Amino acid sequence: MTTKPTTADLDLIMRIIPHRYPFLLIDKVIDIDAPNSAIGIKNVTMNEPHFQGHFPGKPIMPGVTIVEAMAQTAAIVVGVEMDLADKDLLIYFMAIEKAKFRRMVVPGDVLELHVNTLRKGGKIWKFNGVAKVEGQMAAEADFTAMLDLKQG
Known about the structure:
Layout: H1 10-16, E1 28-33, E2 37-43, H2 63-81, E3 89-101, E4 110-119, E5 124-133, E6 136-149
Antiparallel strand pairs: 1-2, 2-4, 3-6, 4-5, 5-6
């Protein structure tokens, strides 16, 4: 029996999810307790393309990209639980609920993406995510996703 990883570096992340620059929004995942929870880490830098227009002179990470980063972290939980590295996994949003934004996320921040599984198994999973910077809540949301494991 193989032990499930409790961390995911960039290499493992890219073996599980198909996202790539500029839409790969997590740098590593720590404290993976598959299928229950994990913490994604995003080092926010000025080099990211959304800061050119959101907003010139006052760069703020868009809320939708924070939610997407939470979802990518959740996808790693699923990928580790189901041993999906190198398996062509796609995961699609089905719902985003109770989204709240409490603090701006700006270049220089280290965004912690705490995700907890609310419903697991099969093709449909539901999660709660809380994004934090220096212990302060930046955003939270519940989201539901559908797995699509390409065959062939």
